[in-house]
Amino acid sequence: MHLLIPVFFNAPQGGLHENVRATVLFMLARRHRVTLVCRPGPFAEQLREQGAGVIETDYGECSYAAALAEIRALHECEPIDLIHAHPFAARRLGVIAARVLGLPCVVTMHGKYLDALPQTIDQLDAVFAVSEGIRHYLLTEGEVGHPEKLQVVPNTPDARLFKAVKVAPPAEAEGRVVVSLVTRLDRDKAFILEVFYQAVVHAAARYPGRIHWQVVGQGTLEEAFAERVEALRGENSVSYTGWLQGEALRDAYCASDAVIAPGRCTLEAMSCGVPAIALGSKGYNGLVDGENWQQAVFSNFGGVGEKQAGYVEGSVELDLDRLMRSRAERRRLGRFGRQVVRQCFNAGEMHRRLLGFYQLAVAAYRAAPRPPVDESAFLELRLRGLAQHRPSPETLTIRLECEPAEDLQFAWYLLRNGKVIEKLGYAPKPHREIALPGPGRYRVRCYVRDSEGRKIAFLGPEVEGPGDAQVNGEEVKREG
What we know:
Layout: E1 2-6, H1 15-29, E2 33-38, H2 42-49, E3 53-56, H3 64-77, E4 82-85, H4 89-101, E5 105-109, H5 117-120, E6 126-129, H6 132-139, E7 150-152, E8 177-182, H7 190-206, E9 211-216, H8 222-232, E10 237-240, H9 246-254, E11 258-261, H10 263-271, E12 276-279, E13 284-287, H11 293-298, H12 315-323, H13 327-344, H14 347-367, E14 383-392, E15 395-402, E16 409-416, E17 419-427, E18 431-435, E19 441-449, E20 455-459, E21 463-464, E22 475-479
Parallel strand pairs: 1-2, 1-4, 2-3, 4-5, 5-6, 6-7, 8-9, 8-11, 9-10, 11-12
Antiparallel strand pairs: 12-13, 14-15, 14-22, 15-18, 16-17, 16-19, 19-20, 19-21
Helix pairs in contact: 3-4, 7-8
């Protein structure tokens, strides 16, 4: 089987990457071919080194035609059997490629969002939710039709790697209880970080000098996060490892007395026999124990919830108090967590199940294929590039290259510091000169509409207004 996996991400590493990596390595080990479609960077290079093919794209709005051309060329040389897309821009590209090339397509839903699933599920052969809670959300609040297409295939840690090993604690720990936060430090993890700050404040007041915080992760908020932790930690110490993978990540778990983490990271820590406070970007499950483990499994360890609105104040403080009671209590919780993983998250079993779904989807599609759809049905495939030019500090010209452009109309919204200040309505011109009225950070939102009413909207690159930077002839291009 030749599997194509489009995956879109902003951060260079994270739980999504590990989910995809696990699928790729399983398929390669079974002598199947796998090609990823993803952004260039360390993840792409790592998967190449491990034997996967890689098609690189930035997933910009003008990149779909070029990406599809590469996928088509690959398909002609090494026929693709199935497309397994991940959310957002990757899902859009995956569905387009499947419909144009006449291929079956499945999608994984990692969290509490719809990503146009109600509108696209008729075009999909299966949808994999990573927890029962996410499947429940899609069927109830999301009102997604075809419940028979929604399967649960959870994240699963590699128990051969993530197991208890003897590791010395961080040098800075000095005999203290080591509690690790394992997460990306980005805005989409804001709820996790806010609850963690509450734990740091509580520990500073109640356990001064007794806790060492180990932060395993990186992201766009690193500097602000470190400054805030430094201001709140009191006499407790802190260290930063950056983002870790493989044995280095396992060792960081095993050097910890407890872990605060979302989703897949919670599972990996529990697989190592380390007690875990499950805290995801959508909700707080708390210290995984005999009372809440089923809810934690149901929600993918914080992947379903109402963020702050669903959080009971004081919860993380109470869980931290439990962890600080005794080493025996931490060991008991660690053993219980490992038992949960062994029962509910067997990696070999889940990957074999996923492969079985792949084989069923391919066989069913071959028995009743859908006719290929012409590329002209997809507005995304007509966009070729976006160019911005500054003829003077006070003006911005913008041009959208399309093939063909005769039946298209274009509208432009000018945003200053994130707010719309001018609207230029639909007209049959793919270019516009726009005045920039004074200092600020400007972006143009581009709208494209075809004769059948299909629309695409996207943002151009940010520029500085006059008075912020006197830039003559500055040019920014985005090519598809």
